[in-house]
Amino acid sequence: MGFDATFFALVGLVLFLLLLIYLGVHKTLAKALDNRAASISKELDEAKRLREEAAQLLAEYQKKARDAEVEARGIVDQASREAAALAEEAKARMEDYVARRTKMAEDKITQAENIALQEVRSLSADVAIAAAEKILSAKLKGEAGAGLVEKAIGEVRSRLN
């Protein structure tokens, strides 16, 4: 019987495997693999949890961004309405101011016209009285004429004023 090197290598391998089984290397190896699988499973669970948290945060931030955009639009709209209201109010104030100033100017013009008209009437009365006095003085000479002239002058003055 001739045993060659291959046979001894096979026997050595079988003995080595039996030794490993006897020493419980397969249990240690299985336990290490189980621990590694559990560790990987935990890491996967943690990664899944972190991904879900990230998705929630993303959704939350997107909602906040939409809310902020809506609020910004509201603020801009409000500011536009306020600006339009202020412009309208300023326009109304300006129109009121112009109307009051125009009315004041018209009142001053009317007052000036009335004063001028009174001055013209007064001047006309004075001129008429002076003319009447000259005419009556020229026609009526003497004391009787002077009394009559004074009486006529008084009547003219009372009627013209």
Question: Can you walk me through this structure?
Answer:
It is found in: Cell inner membrane; Cell membrane. It comes from Kaistia geumhonensis. Belongs to the ATPase B chain family. This protein has 161 residues and is mostly helical. It has three helices and no strands. The radius of gyration is 62 Å and the shape is rod-shaped. The model has no long low-confidence stretch (mean pLDDT 87).
Tell me the number of structural domains: 1
Shape: rod-shaped
Radius of gyration from the alpha-carbon trace, in angstroms: 62 Å
Q: Taking all residues together, what is the mean pLDDT?
A: 87
Quaternary organization: single chain
Q: What is the first-to-last residue Cα distance?
A: 173 Å
Question: How many strand segments?
Answer: 0
Q: Could you say which structural class the secondary elements and strand pairing correspond to?
A: mainly alpha
Spell out the helices and strands N to C.
HHH
Q: Please work out how many helical segments DSSP would assign.
A: 3
Percentage of helical residues? over 70%
Percentage of residues in DSSP E strands: under 5%
Biggest sheet features = none
* Uncertain residue ranges: none
